[in-house]
Amino acid sequence: MTLQLWTQRDLIEIRRDMKRERPTDFWRKKFFGGAPHYSKNKEIHFGDIEGTRAMAPFALPSSMGVPIFKDRGAALKSFTPAYIKLLDAVRPEDATTMTVEELMEGKELDMSQRFDLRTAEISRQHITAIERTWDWMCARAVIDGAVTVKYQPDQGQPYPEVTITFGRDSNLTVAFGNTSDWSDPDADIFGDVQDWINAGRAAKFGGSFNEMIVGRNVAEVFQRNKGIIEKLDTQIRGGEATSFTRGLQFYGDDANMPTYIGTLGGAGGAIAVYAYQDQQINDAGSLVEVLDPNDVFMSAPGVDGLMAYGAIYDLQAMGSGNGARTDIFQKQYENANPSQLNMLSQSAPLPIPRNPNRTFKATVLN
Prior knowledge:
25% of the residues lie in helices and 27% in strands. It has 366 residues and is of the alpha+beta class. It has a single domain (24-42, 79-363), classed as capsid protein of prophage domain (capsid protein of prophage fold, 2-Layer Sandwich). It has a seven-stranded mixed β-sheet. Strands 1-15-18 form a three-stranded mixed β-sheet. Strands 4-17-16 form a three-stranded antiparallel β-sheet, covered by helices on one side. Mean pLDDT is 82; it is low at 1-15.
């Protein structure tokens, strides 16, 4: 039997899958860059004040004048944040096993040092897992216009799913039927996108879509679509603003970032098109797509999202009575029997797209 010796680099590569360790924060950073909001209440409230397009009426010069003022008021929206609570323990026996770092570096640590390393690693894992949940919620909030929270069973009692909706116009979520979709080379992609642009403009607090992010299956259809191929023909006028890459479709090493593949152009504007493929791991340990491979997402400037954080239900977090104004609350406490250090991390996140009608989703492949 041959003994294979590993170099330090080999050990690191085996131990870490860098694709799994890269950030998944694209949707959070792009659409939820507003100043975070911290609340000490159970619910988070936001108000909308409608604009007006009322025209001034005509009146004779000799008349008293026509009153037009109307109190526009405000529509108050209340959202209840989700709640995350992670609990892990560090036990004395965890400090008796030599770590991989010790084997690689040839330096033995004492039990206290190993215990501290284990504590720090659990803290990092808690923060990373919580931030990945934020990322997933942010993606769902803008892509789907809603976030579904699946609470874990408590002492064997199942908890129902809770869906937080942000009031996106129903015309801004589209699913094709079973009869036709974009896989047909004769599909009128330009006509569909134009209809969606019009719907976005007509929606309350809507906007003009200027970016499109498509799933990996959708990215392929642009190269086969006859309408797009016609616009790429330089011998035909009117398609100069439309351009698409041809040939193989490659993605960057960082799956978190979309890859530019082309532009849908027209009079007075254009929509930049990006392909996207990234995954998360759900509670069951399965890989799930952040953007469905058969979906199209569009956005207009001014989604104006922010991260809101609700109250932490913890006596220590209450402090002076004002509550902990924080995104993640961590604490440690000892347990006498069995002897262990409990590490608890809590967060009450809620991504809020303040202008949900500046987002759009369509399922274009069956």
